[in-house]
Design brief:
The structure holds 2 protein chains of 2 kinds.
Chain A lengths: L1 H19 L2 H19 L6 H26 L7 H14 L4 H29 L4 H19 L9 H6 L3 E2 L3 E2 H18 L1 H11 L1 H6 L4 H27 L8 H13 L11 H20 L7 H23 L5
Antiparallel strand pairs in A: 1-2
Chain B lengths: L1 H6 L4 H23 L10 H26 L7 H16 L4 H26 L5 H20 L9 H8 L1 E2 L2 E2 H19 L1 H11 L1 H6 L4 H27 L11 H10 L11 H21 L3 H32 L8 H11 L1
Helix pairs in contact in B: 2-13, 3-8, 3-11, 3-12, 3-13, 4-5, 4-6, 4-11, 5-6, 5-11, 7-11, 8-9, 12-13, 13-14
The chains are: A mainly alpha, B mainly alpha.
Chain lengths: 330, 349
């Protein structure tokens, strides 16, 4: 009997360790904590408008972070996010027509561009074997330049149909943004179990070993960059719906915040460990943090200080919990 | 210097790096001469001077950035640190010349301390450099923004401005400054024990640790130097622009990395020369100056800039293959005893 008690206790300890080792749960806990603070400070925090706002504000960054995570999982860095977000945004604000047809046309156009930029990154990194930071730096600069060519100063108008529909609610109160986020999460849960998804982690953990095990490492990496490009384009699309206007510099703040979200989401920058859902929650946490600071009366000047500190803390907590989780092995 | 390198036998990789740097200088010169076709006012000494002055900020920032990259890291905080350095100089030194005596070292100490925080995060807390410096950049920017309340107030320093306006033998003072820095920086990398250890740490930190090198202290030092060099660039910017803005450092983050990478430094660490990064900074600055003068839209300029970086990367890769092939073909290794003796003679020179 005492043996079984010890056994149960051991099993509990193990599952606690496994939970702690899961970055997604840690960031979910951080988010919950922030939300409680927010709800206590802000009277209307639980109103429908406020919740719809939270989803709408977080989704563009969450999509960008989801894409970036795919590349970080392969131990790469993709800086092109800034350029692709800006390019999608200015295109949505200038050349897209109104109505459902215009919205679909715009969606096809920006995802096509995102795919193209991702494919260029993928070829450069996976096949030409250039360093990912350097080559995506170049594609980022090129796409930012293209964004400036489309629209050289903030302006333009995103079609009302896109701006209204995507920031609205459906089925009596569910934000469209939440539906999209859920769709991405479900798609990822499926993708993660495909051959490609498994290979993605294997390539990031040890490319040579993955290659020896018969994984087509180059194709896996190439696809990661392609899909990341599509996510950045979707991020720009949602950002356009949110801001309803174009800005060739819209992507600048995304460069920092995307990587911040990925880090807070518990994805390891040495590859092979992490999760898209965590990064999306990380993006939501950063967005909520801004609101909490605002409601606490902290000058918006100082928001950056808290974002930076949360970023470092998230990485430290992840590393610490990882050490506890792997404590059994040590 | 180069004769000794050749005698040292095993260190021919140095001349590869030096050739690379000279090629970048040559390309810069060709580009300046070639710009005569764009406008008759171009291609002369005065344009070359203007480009050298403009490139001085990237040259200074790239020094620290390159040291960090050599150890396999990356410093993404330099834009904010540079802004902070500039804003502090503008606010606290102002027009007073005596204040420069304590003000400049003060700014450098403070920015070096920020670099030290980066180093502590990377080395002891094991936060990935990318995240640590990114977060530090956001924090420093927030602090600068908060301290100034959104608008930096201060006065330009006439002495700092003199660096750019006054000249000696027809050459602006700041050009002497970056020339000295280029020589000293390259000597630090190739002629001192610190420099040699730096490459060892960058090539293989585990091996360097086993060999008894103070890996942590060396890595830490690179971040400290990077912070200080970003601070110095900020101070110089105040002299050049006669003021400070909260965005003054922003446009230097990516060029600082691009100059280092175009200059032939591997982003994975362990190989590269400061002279190359200086060449990269000059080439990129010349390029953007020349494109700016063609009178095309900013968008096209940016696109061309990106394509040039890409081309440089692709070309350097070929060069790397040739270089690796040459290294592999060379018989014999480095005689272990010869390294300290060359270090001593190099140091005495």
């Amino acid at each position: 009997m005492s043996a079984s008690v010890a056994n149960t206790r051991q099993r509990t300890a193990m599952s606690i360790r496994r939970l702690l080792g899961n970055g997604t749960l840690i960031v979910a806990a951080i988010y919950a904590l922030l939300f409680v603070i927010f709800a206590l400070r802000q009277a209307d925090a639980l109103s429908r408008n406020s919740i719809v706002d939270l989803f709408n504000n977080a989704l563009p960054l969450a999509l960008a972070a989801a894409g970036g995570t795919l590349v970080v999982l392969t131990r790469g860095f993709d800086l092109s996010v800034a350029g692709v977000v800006a390019l999608s945004n200015v295109l949505m604000a200038t050349v897209v027509g109104d109505g459902p047809a215009g919205a679909l046309e715009g969606l096809a156009m920006v995802t096509g561009i995102g795919l193209l930029v991702g494919a260029v990154n993928g070829v450069l990194v996976a096949y030409v074997r250039l360093q990912s930071i350097a080559s995506t730096l170049a594609t980022m600069i090129v796409t930012s330049g293209l964004a400036l060519l489309v629209l050289d100063a903030p302006g333009g108008n995103v079609p009302d149909f896109v701006a209204d529909t995507l920031t609205d609610v459906v089925a009596g109160g569910i934000p469209v943004a939440a539906v999209i986020a859920l769709a991405v999460v479900l798609a990822w849960l499926v993708l993660r179990r495909t051959d490609w998804g498994v290979a993605l982690y294997a390539v990031g953990a040890d490319e040579t070993a993955a290659g020896l095990a018969g994984i087509p490492t180059r194709r896996v990496m190439f696809l990661a960059y392609c899909l990341a490009g599509v996510f950045y384009a979707l991020s720009g699309y949602m950002l356009s719906a949110l801001t309803a206007t174009g800005n060739p510099n819209a992507g600048n703040s995304y460069l920092l915040l995307t990587f911040a979200a990925i880090a807070i989401g518990g994805t390891s920058f040495s590859g092979g460990r992490g999760d898209v859902v965590g990064a999306m929650l990380g993006a939501a946490t950063l967005t909520l943090l801004q609101k909490v600071l605002f409601s606490a009366g902290v000058s918006s000047f100082y928001t950056g200080i808290f974002q930076g500190i949360v970023m470092i803390l998230a990485v430290l907590v992840a590393a610490l919990s990882d050490r506890i989780a792997s404590g059994r092995r040590a | 210097m180069s004769g000794q390198d050749r005698r040292a036998g095993g260190r021919r990789g140095i001349s590869g790096d030096v050739w690379n740097a000279l090629a970048l200088f040559g390309l810069t010169a060709l580009l300046i001469l070639g710009s005569r076709w764009i406008s008759p006012g171009f291609g002369g000494w005065s344009q070359a001077k203007a480009i050298l002055v403009l490139s001085s900020f990237v040259v200074v920032v790239a020094f620290g950035q390159q040291l960090v990259i050599l150890t396999g890291g990356l410093d993404l905080s330099i834009a904010s640190v540079m802004t902070m350095g500039g804003v502090l100089a503008f606010t606290f030194i102002g027009a007073s010349s005596p204040a420069l005596l304590w003000g400049v070292p003060g700014v450098l100490l403070l920015t070096a301390a920020i670099g030290a925080l980066n180093g502590i995060g990377v080395v002891w807390l094991r936060v990935p450099p990318f995240i640590m410096t990114l977060a530090m950049g956001i924090i420093v920017y927030g602090a600068t923004l908060g301290l100034t309340g959104g608008t930096p107030r201060g006065q330009p320093s006439p002495l700092l401005s003199a660096l750019f306006t006054a000249d000696l033998a027809g050459v602006p003072l700041v050009i002497y400054l970056i020339s000295v820095l280029a020589v000293l920086g390259t000597l630090l990398q190739r002629g001192t024990g610190f420099g040699r250890r730096l490459y060892a740490v960058g090539t293989n930190p585990a091996a360097a640790h086993i060999a008894g090198l103070p890996v942590r202290r060396i890595t830490m030092m690179t971040y400290v130097i990077s912070g200080a060099s970003a601070g110095l660039a900020g101070v110089l910017m105040v002299g050049y622009a006669g003021g400070a803005t909260l965005t003054m450092g922003q446009s230097y983050q990516l060029p600082s990395i691009a100059a280092v990478v175009v200059g032939g430094t591997s982003i994975l660490g362990g190989s590269g020369l400061y002279l190359g990064a200086v060449g990269g900074a000059l080439l990129l600055t010349t390029f953007s100056t020349v494109i700016a003068s063609i009178g095309i839209a900013e968008g096209w300029r940016t696109v061309i800039y990106g394509i040039v970086i890409l081309l440089a990367l692709l070309l350097l890769r070929e060069e790397l293959y040739v270089w690796v092939g040459r290294l592999a073909a060379r018989p014999g290794g480095i005689p272990p005893r010869s390294t300290p003796s060359t270090a001593m003679t190099g140091g005495n020179k």
